[in-house]
Amino acid sequence: MAALTGLNSKAEVARSHTAMAVNINAARALQDILKTNLGPKGTMKMLVSGAGDIKITKDGNVLLHEMQIQSPTASLIARASTAQNDITGDGTTSTVLLIGELLKQAQLIIQEGLHPRVITEGFDLAQAKAFEVLDQMKLDIPINRDTLIQVARTSLSTKVYNELASLLTDVCVDSVLTIKKDNEPLNLHMVEIMEMQHKTHKDTKLIKGLVLDHGARHPDMPKVVKNAYILAVNVSMEYEKTEVNAGFFYKTAEEREKLVQAEREFIENRVRKVIELKKQVCGNDKEKGFVLINQQGIDPMSLDLLAKEGIMALRRAKRRNMERLGLATGSVALNSVDNLTPDVLGYAGLVYEHVLGENKYTFVEELKNPKSVTILIKGPNKHTITQIKDAIHDGLRAVKNAIDDGCVVAGAGAFEIAAHYALMEYEKEVKGRAVFGVRAFAEALLIVVKTLAVNSGLDPQDTLVKLREQYHRLRPQPVGLNLNTGEPCDPVADGILDNYCVHRQLISACTVIATNLLLVDEIMFAGVQQKK
Amino acid sequence: MVKGEVITLQLGSFSNFVASHLWNLQSQCFYYSKDAPFGHEFDHDVYYREGRSFLNKTTFTPRTVLIDLKGSVRNCSWPVDQAYDGPNDDEQKVWDGQVQIHKAEPQAASSKSEELGEVDVRPKKAPLQKNSWAGYLQNKYHPKSVTINNDFDSDNPQQPFGVFNQGETLWRLESENFEDRVRWFAEDCDHLSAFNIMMDTSNGFSGFASSCLDYLDDQFRAKSRVVWSLSDVPANDSAANYRALNTVLAYQKMQELADVVLPLSVSADGLRRHLRSSSLVALDPSPFTGGAALAMHVDSILSSLKLKSEGGCDFVNFLRLMTIPDRKFVVSSMAASPLSKDGRLEDLSPKCDSSKMATSAYAVSRGTETSHAIIVRISNTSAASTFHTMVRHPTKFCQDYFPEISSQSMRSVKGSQLVDGLFVVKNSADVVAHFDDLRRRRVNLGKMHRISLPEGDVTEAIQNVASLRENYLK
Ligand SMILES: Nc1ncnc2c1ncn2[C@@H]1O[C@H](COP(=O)(O)OP(=O)(O)OP(=O)(O)O)[C@@H](O)[C@H]1O
Ligand SMILES: [Mg+2]
């Protein structure tokens, strides 16, 4: 590859420069749009369509998904950033900023005649060093509830106002701590997120149990069941017109009638087995109740039979709720109602229905040791609910990341300041022209701190000077930016904690993409030359 | 007799274009007063559900779930009934920092009177916007009906959504959400009987729809599945081989999991751009216009399956009449002037020309009664194997949808734009021409870089089309 570079004619280099300029411009245009989003003092974006429809978000990831991006470069960056979000749940905005800044810094040196390949070599060296710094910055504090609260609050307060952030922080941390099992990987799917229209979002809360988005479909069924046995099955309890699928025709009307009758009895039998089990466990005890939750359908005739026995029955439950019910109530999901025994039943102290407009909800609560819970998001409209939902996703991921990482790092720009410092030291050891790449990388990292400062109405250069001086004095103790005062702060003391994996992924994704964008022309030219 | 409820699925952009026309046609037959001009012959609850919005308004919306991609709504207003959204006041803002507003260019140019500062008090007729299915949909959808995916662009020449795998990826991204919506509508039914599936067969949505059929089979095994296999008109012919492959792959799934498949296309073969050489040639190739023509057929067949009268068919009976084991693909044709000349039947299925004798036929005459003998003759079947039903309410022909049709032929349209018509579905060997056309396309996986499927799967799907064809020649 290096040899080929030498063969490039002047014209080709010029063409490659213009192509790279296009790339860099696209990256910076994207950066311009997203930079005001960053941090707890960032700007909320309201997107108004031609017809007046509104989308509101402060989340870089959501914004990138809403934008119609035509430039291939911009869409490459956007995809890298949303991938960052898929992997870690955070850091989308920073990814866009950092890629843009790496390219901008690179451009400055390329204009002075340095070849992109040399810069990317420097990037590789700098990346390795940055990883080292990050590993040294892992904080030596236990990952307990307090720490998790701080991580979650740091993340959430970049998405919603403070009071709401506090509310959601508790909700996120407590839901994860409830479902967490020792020595087992955390499965966030066991936190169900349910939306409910309601006049105020301030009633968003954690339910230590399940909320299903449907109710009993029979007027005579109980609306509240106490001391409830829960039976979870995946068995059709509706009469099916199977003849179509079987593809056969009846010879006579009587024959048809007979088959219909047989099918009906077949279904009724299944229902009777459920009723038998209910009688067996509840007897004549009026204090005990019975709830059937079926993944398949239950037709009105079957509902009738169940209602007569005082059974509350729900049909067409979500597939995943079968698993959640097991974890929440201890029930065993069954694919058949043959040989029913009491030990497949779960238990809930309270099951009740809540009706709201055309929507019914069933709450399954008062559980012994629920390993599946529900976050009930309330809000008056689509925008509010969606924004809270996105924020909760971020909060849950932050908590999970901290647990999976087993550590956290200081936020508020502390990592960027420390890595910048280390790279400037490291620069002295780097031989050859790669040193320019290392320096460009170090400069680029500062974009996060600068943007946090600008978004808080602070002067970016003054701020940087203060932070770097402070870090020089206190290192290796982390130094971050207090966005309210503009002064250096101790992020750990202030409880501003970031996820380790987010920073790590950020560094590696940005290095890869920036490198690709810088080299894409060279690779293309190499291809052309090979053809000759 | 209680008719079972039907859930409609709209899987793909073109399907959504057709469906907007379909729901417009369906709702023109709603009469809220006691005396309706053609009587109350329909049980609308088959395809629609009554609901109650957050603002406590009674709603009546299609029982449907749709999928489309980012940008498909263009700058039309959001196609969901706003009565389901609560107030959006300052009290409920979740951010107390700065807010930045980004406005897209407004669509409509200001009218003269607005410029002059005059206030127009008459309700303004919204201009018909034909570049999106949301632009002409008259009654908006239930919020649970609409999913717009944000990972793929609907109209990005750089990254067309044109390959089966992309559709499979889309299913992976959206399945949890999509399944949840289908489940919600199903839970709401007392006698769910069938799924009415409208799908894009020749573009990337074929992969989505195939995965969706798997899901339906898994969760709703005993429910019937009617598939309208719709081909849009491509922007150019460069992707014809991809379109053929998408179709072939989707057909394999349909043969396995659908009860009946009705392929419909505006272009002659469903793969390339050129239109039919019949009078439908008067259409322009836009999804709006093509969709309007196909929707007339879909609407009439569906309408005939929701008749209250005893003689009418329901979904399940329709399947029993139409399908013969291993012969699930049936062809369609319609006669509705001025879209077809002299009451001749226009073929709507790709490559099919009504030349072969049909083994069974289902015919719907709308507006006026047509004698059984005539129907049997023009649809080329035998009297005994033809089922014929009458829908009294005529269908509607919207003149402004078809500017290309000469004013000469427009004379047959009455003032109210109501027209009579005949709509036929047949099980016949005509469809073999379509299968043969698909098999003729050379599928060279080595050259089709955008597709990434195991070679074995592709070969198997191609062999499946070959065996489909044999079933009709036996
Ligand atoms: N209270 C705070 N003071 C200073 N800096 C903060 C504070 N809270 C968060 N930050 C910093 O803000 C940055 C994160 O901002 P933000 O969450 O808006 O963007 P992102 O994570 O890059 O992208 P996104 O969350 O949109 O995917 C991190 O660098 C974090 O350390
Ligand atoms: Mg963040």
UniProtKB/TrEMBL annotation, chain A:
<dbReference type="InterPro" id="IPR027410">
    <property type="entry name" value="TCP-1-like_intermed_sf"/>
</dbReference>
<dbReference type="InterPro" id="IPR027409">
    <property type="entry name" value="GroEL-like_apical_dom_sf"/>
</dbReference>
<keyword id="KW-0547">Nucleotide-binding</keyword>
<dbReference type="InterPro" id="IPR027413">
    <property type="entry name" value="GROEL-like_equatorial_sf"/>
</dbReference>
<keyword id="KW-0143">Chaperone</keyword>
<dbReference type="Pfam" id="PF00118">
    <property type="entry name" value="Cpn60_TCP1"/>
</dbReference>
<dbReference type="InterPro" id="IPR053374">
    <property type="entry name" value="TCP-1_chaperonin"/>
</dbReference>
<dbReference type="InterPro" id="IPR012722">
    <property type="entry name" value="Chap_CCT_zeta"/>
</dbReference>
<dbReference type="InterPro" id="IPR002194">
    <property type="entry name" value="Chaperonin_TCP-1_CS"/>
</dbReference>
<dbReference type="GO" id="GO:0005737">
    <property type="term" value="C:cytoplasm"/>
</dbReference>
<keyword id="KW-0963">Cytoplasm</keyword>
<protein>
    <submittedName>
        <fullName>T-complex protein 1 subunit zeta</fullName>
    </submittedName>
</protein>
<dbReference type="GO" id="GO:0051082">
    <property type="term" value="F:unfolded protein binding"/>
</dbReference>
<dbReference type="InterPro" id="IPR002423">
    <property type="entry name" value="Cpn60/GroEL/TCP-1"/>
</dbReference>
<dbReference type="InterPro" id="IPR017998">
    <property type="entry name" value="Chaperone_TCP-1"/>
</dbReference>
<comment type="similarity">
    <text>Belongs to the TCP-1 chaperonin family.</text>
</comment>
<dbReference type="GO" id="GO:0140662">
    <property type="term" value="F:ATP-dependent protein folding chaperone"/>
</dbReference>
<keyword id="KW-0067">ATP-binding</keyword>
<dbReference type="GO" id="GO:0016887">
    <property type="term" value="F:ATP hydrolysis activity"/>
</dbReference>
<dbReference type="GO" id="GO:0005524">
    <property type="term" value="F:ATP binding"/>
</dbReference>
TrEMBL record, chain B:
<dbReference type="InterPro" id="IPR036525">
    <property type="entry name" value="Tubulin/FtsZ_GTPase_sf"/>
</dbReference>
<feature type="domain" description="Misato Segment II tubulin-like">
    <location>
        <begin position="5"/>
        <end position="115"/>
    </location>
</feature>
<dbReference type="Pfam" id="PF14881">
    <property type="entry name" value="Tubulin_3"/>
</dbReference>
<keyword id="KW-0496">Mitochondrion</keyword>
<dbReference type="InterPro" id="IPR029209">
    <property type="entry name" value="DML1/Misato_tubulin"/>
</dbReference>
<dbReference type="InterPro" id="IPR019605">
    <property type="entry name" value="Misato_II_tubulin-like"/>
</dbReference>
<protein>
    <submittedName>
        <fullName>Protein misato homolog 1</fullName>
    </submittedName>
</protein>
<dbReference type="InterPro" id="IPR049942">
    <property type="entry name" value="DML1/Misato"/>
</dbReference>
<dbReference type="Pfam" id="PF10644">
    <property type="entry name" value="Misat_Tub_SegII"/>
</dbReference>
<dbReference type="GO" id="GO:0005739">
    <property type="term" value="C:mitochondrion"/>
</dbReference>
<dbReference type="GO" id="GO:0007005">
    <property type="term" value="P:mitochondrion organization"/>
</dbReference>
<comment type="similarity">
    <text>Belongs to the misato family.</text>
</comment>
<feature type="domain" description="DML1/Misato tubulin">
    <location>
        <begin position="131"/>
        <end position="281"/>
    </location>
</feature>
